[in-house]
């Protein structure tokens, strides 16, 4: 039983498949730093005591050459090269480049704004409808065109990112207004959301629970409360949740409910958190 | 022989004449609109120390909100104004204003003008044996342009919407769309940068052209080297930011879109801008300055620490040449690491590999610099003066600052640590107990030379011990809180579960900060009261230094030297019998 995912002064819980490499690197670097610092520190304190000015003590003026520091320096270089080449680069390379197949992964667009995260799911057809800045408003935060080819079934949630475990997730990240930074502390994911760019990131998580999305880049007066929910479900729970969304959307649009829907009674409005206002108190 | 003697005599005549003329100048010409590099250096130093105090004070206010979120500030909350502190509670917008201005003030109005404008101006001409800067009027202009820039920054708090609130980095589009004094900030920056450019040209020309006879480059004191390298960094790195500042000003005022992409929707409205720009461009231009800027903050401190360690270990600096080459290498390399601030902007593996590698490379000369100082201690006779305490404390503090840069410089670990409190802890260790301690060491070290009075040793030691202990209570918890993933620049981190989990650290940091503030009182008191009450120092060389500033009368007259000086040897030389071989003594 985990008491908290956020132990004091330590790395948070890691539920991602790639995070272990990051954590390992962080731990190794800190061990390296500690060795250097303690080593220097002992030498330093010894000097401060042994070579203090006192009666009968004279400084050694002849030019001395020490060879140990050269080896320390070479050691530092070697350790840095090892950390860079064998620890940092592989993890980073895979984080940046080894994308899962878009047809198999769950692809979500995340559109950030002051001060909310809008999640845009492609819906049943697995394809995103057209979006446009002109259509963006309080009820349509991602500017989705429902009349466009694949837009009818797209699901939009605000501040709640639902993903299933054990399935690769790709997030196409962008921003409507200013630069934000999409940070999932427990999944070791961080990426700036830059307006005018759509930047893909990918990850896979292995443990269910309710976690947090944090904004890591100063984005204005509400930066501190730009908190989203990162809700990780089992594949079954996720499918149920998605079906609920689809039913609700169909009701909203007056369309026929999706084919393999659960009984209509279950399809009560479940997206209560999505109703949270997302654009109050913008910078005046 | 007689020819050179005659030359020296006429030279001394000339000095006498200049001094007589200067004595008859009116007060405002001597002390206000002065062309004397020492007066200008002091103007810089006093102004920047006041700015440091103001910037620190802002942080003390913010620290209340961080420790006790949404509780009214005790005592002063009510009088700070309803608009900034509604009900005595700091508003989020006020927090962002203070945060942005804290960074701006500490860096551009505090540390740089103190280390470069203050110490550089005062000491560099004397250490190369010059009577003044190469361009005294340019020097005066540099100070007054700085002063105007500083005033624009300070008065921007009165502008509609308050001061700039987009961080000291001023990333667009946030900064471009901000309805506050961001434009004043940009204009202020243009003034400050112009001032730095004027100053850096002066420093370079003075150090190279006005060297006295015998002072070859490899006989320059470490501080001169540090100042010259710093001046080159300022000269080459600042213009891109000046240009970028003007571009951002155009984006704000003239409707251009250098940094603004098309299709922005702010507050539910499509923004009417021409579009097609790129906000990342600003970051490149900004960090192309701001990374060399880090070394602008560090190098003069390294120079000051070198001078003080050399003087108080009573032996030559270990590896002077290695130290100089390392600083040169640092200066050069600092131009090719800037994008390690931008790993999370979507940078691919090709570009980030380059910047990761250069970042690891730049750690090597930093380690060498630290090593030369540590090795200087071996076999020394360490005199624990107050400046020496601060200079020694610089070493482990700067080491922590440097080491904590490693996990941020590697992309994989940066994924988790980027933009968290870990970053804040890292660079504060470099700049606060690092650079600022070195600057305080410098203030104490040259105080008797500048004022002709000795400071109070006991107060100095209280200041030192209080500061070194309390400052670590501020910055060490930041590193731990960064590990937890708590983002920087949060008005109230308890909104997040992972922030609330680390909130207890904020209490430690805030009380540490307030304690640090209290321990600056003996420092300020000491500096002011010792002017009148301090023991009079009449000898030229109270610490037994080896460089040219210790050949001047105390305090130095307008011409610095009363006689022609010449340099006969490397700095930091000692002989067993006399125990001291200053550069300026022929023997």
Textual characterization of the structure:
The complex is a heterodimer of chains A (284) and B (587). Chain A is of the alpha+beta class. Chain A is built from three helices and ten strands. In chain A, the strands form two sheets. Chain A has a five-stranded mixed β-sheet with strand order 3-2-1-5-8. In chain A, strands 4-10-9-6-7 form a five-stranded mixed β-sheet. Chain A starts with 18 loop residues before the first helix and ends in a 31-residue tail after the last helix. Residues 261-284 of chain A have low confidence and may be disordered. Chain B is built from 19 helices and two strands. Chain B has helices at 2-23, 27-32, 37-67, 92-127, 136-155, 174-177, 182-209, 222-253, 279-313, 320-333, 349-376, 386-403, 405-409, 411-417, 421-451, 457-483, 497-501, 503-518, 521-533; strands spanning 265-266, 269-270. Chain B is globular and about 80 Å long. Chains A and B meet through helix 1, helix 2, strand 7 and strand 9 of A and helix 4, strand 1, helix 9, helix 11 and helix 12 of B.
Would you identify the regions of chain B where 5 or more consecutive residues have pLDDT less than 50? none
The whole-number mean of residue pLDDT values of chain B reads: 94
Task: Encode the helix/strand succession of chain B as letters.
Answer: HHHHHHHHEEHHHHHHHHHHH
Number of helices of chain A: 3
Fold blueprint:
The complex is a heterodimer of chains A (284) and B (587).
Chain A: H1 19-50, H2 68-97, E1 106-113, E2 116-121, E3 155-158, E4 160-164, E5 169-175, E6 180-184, E7 189-193, E8 199-203, E9 209-215, E10 228-233, H3 235-253
Parallel strand pairs in A: 1-5, 4-10
Antiparallel strand pairs in A: 1-2, 2-3, 5-8, 6-7, 6-9, 9-10
Helix pairs in contact in A: 1-2
Chain B: H1 2-23, H2 27-32, H3 37-67, H4 92-127, H5 136-155, H6 174-177, H7 182-209, H8 222-253, E1 265-266, E2 269-270, H9 279-313, H10 320-333, H11 349-376, H12 386-403, H13 405-409, H14 411-417, H15 421-451, H16 457-483, H17 497-501, H18 503-518, H19 521-533
């Amino acid at each position: 039983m985990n008491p908290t995912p956020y132990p004091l002064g330590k790395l948070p819980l890691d539920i991602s498949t790639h995070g272990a490499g990051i954590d390992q690197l962080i731990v190794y670097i800190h061990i390296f730093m500690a060795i250097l610092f303690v080593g220097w520190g002992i030498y330093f304190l010894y000097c401060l005591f042994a070579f203090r000015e006192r009666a009968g003590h004279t400084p050694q003026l002849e030019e001395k050459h020490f060879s140990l520091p050269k080896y320390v320096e070479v050691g530092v270089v070697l350790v840095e090269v090892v950390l860079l080449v064998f620890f940092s680069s592989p993890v980073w390379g895979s984080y940046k480049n080894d994308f899962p197949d878009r047809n198999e992964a769950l692809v979500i667009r995340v559109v950030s704004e002051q001060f909310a995260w809008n999640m845009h799911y492609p819906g049943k057809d697995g394809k995103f409808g057209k979006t446009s800045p002109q259509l963006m408003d309080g009820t349509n935060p991602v500017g989705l065109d429902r009349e466009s080819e694949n837009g009818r079934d797209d699901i939009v949630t605000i501040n709640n990112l639902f993903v299933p475990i054990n399935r690769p997730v790709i997030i196409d990240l962008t921003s409507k207004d200013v630069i934000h930074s999409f940070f999932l502390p427990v999944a070791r994911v961080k990426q700036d959301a830059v307006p005018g760019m759509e930047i893909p990131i990918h990850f896979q998580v292995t443990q269910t629970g309710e976690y947090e999305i944090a904004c890591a880049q100063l984005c204005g007066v509400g930066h501190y409360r730009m908190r989203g929910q990162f809700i990780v479900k089992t594949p079954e729970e996720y499918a149920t949740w998605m079906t609920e969304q689809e039913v609700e959307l169909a009701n909203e649009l007056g369309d026929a409910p999706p084919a393999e829907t659960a009984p209509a009674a279950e399809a009560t409005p479940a997206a209560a958190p999505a109703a949270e206002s997302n654009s109050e108190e913008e910078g005046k | 022989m007689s020819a050179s003697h005659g030359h020296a005599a006429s030279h001394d005549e000339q000095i006498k004449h200049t001094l007589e003329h200067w004595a008859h100048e009116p007060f405002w010409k001597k002390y206000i609109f002065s062309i004397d590099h020492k007066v200008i250096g002091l103007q810089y130093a006093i102004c920047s120390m006041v700015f440091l105090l103001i910037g620190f004070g802002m942080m003390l206010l913010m620290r209340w909100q961080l420790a006790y979120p949404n509780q009214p500030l005790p005592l002063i909350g009510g009088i700070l104004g309803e608009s900034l502190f509604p009900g005595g509670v700091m508003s989020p917008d006020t927090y962002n204003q203070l945060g942005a201005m804290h960074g701006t003030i500490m860096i551009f109005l505090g540390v740089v003008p103190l280390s470069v404008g203050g110490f550089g101006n005062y000491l560099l001409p004397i250490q190369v044996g010059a009577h003044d800067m190469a361009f005294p009027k340019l020097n005066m202009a540099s100070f007054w342009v700085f002063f105007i820039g500083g005033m624009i920054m300070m008065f921007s708090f009165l502008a509609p919407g308050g001061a700039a609130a987009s961080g000291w980095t001023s990333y667009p589009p946030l900064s471009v769309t901000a309805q506050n004094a961001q434009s004043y900030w940009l204009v202020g920056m243009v003034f400050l940068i112009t001032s730095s450019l004027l100053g850096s040209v002066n420093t370079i020309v003075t150090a190279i052209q006005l060297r006295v006879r015998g002072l070859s480059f490899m006989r320059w004191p470490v501080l001169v080297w540090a100042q010259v390298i710093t001046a080159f960094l300022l000269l080459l790195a600042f213009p891109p930011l000046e240009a970028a500042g003007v571009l951002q000003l155009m984006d704000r005022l003239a409707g251009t879109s250098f940094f603004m992409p098309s299709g922005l929707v702010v507050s539910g409205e499509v923004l009417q801008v021409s579009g097609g720009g790129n906000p990342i461009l600003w970051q490149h231009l900004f960090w192309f300055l701001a990374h060399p800027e880090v070394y602008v903050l560090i190098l003069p401190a390294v120079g000051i620490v070198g001078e003080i360690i050399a003087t108080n270990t009573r032996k030559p600096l270990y590896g002077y040449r290695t130290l100089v080459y390392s600083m040169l290498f640092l200066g050069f390399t600092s131009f090719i690491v800037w994008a390690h601030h931008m790993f999370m902007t979507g940078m691919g593996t090709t570009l980030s590999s380059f910047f990761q590698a250069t970042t690891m490379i730049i750690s090597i000369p930093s380690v060498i610099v630290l090593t030369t100082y540590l090795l200087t201690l071996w076999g020394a006779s360490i005199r624990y003066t107050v400046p020496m305490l601060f200079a020694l404390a610089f070493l482990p503090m700067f080491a922590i600052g440097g080491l904590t840069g490693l996990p941020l410089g590697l992309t994989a670990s940066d994924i988790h640590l980027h933009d968290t409190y870990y970053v804040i802890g890292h660079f504060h260790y470099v700049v606060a107990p690092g650079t600022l301690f070195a600057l305080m060491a410098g203030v104490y070290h040259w105080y008797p030379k500048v004022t002709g009075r000795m400071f109070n040793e006991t107060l100095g030691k209280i200041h030192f011990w209080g500061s070194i202990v309390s400052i670590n209570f501020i910055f060490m918890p930041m590193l731990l809180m960064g590990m937890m993933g708590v983002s920087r620049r949060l008005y109230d981190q308890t909104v997040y579960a992972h922030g609330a989990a680390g909130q207890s650290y904020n209490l430690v940091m805030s009380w540490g900060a307030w304690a640090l503030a209290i321990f600056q009182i003996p420092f300020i008191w000491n500096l002011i009261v010792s002017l009148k009450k301090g023991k009079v120092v009449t000898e030229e060389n109270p610490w037994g230094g080896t460089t040219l500033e210790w050949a001047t009368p105390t305090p130095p007259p307008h011409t610095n030297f009363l006689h022609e000086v010449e340099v006969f040897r490397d700095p930091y030389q000692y002989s067993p019998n006399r125990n001291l071989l200053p550069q300026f003594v022929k023997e």
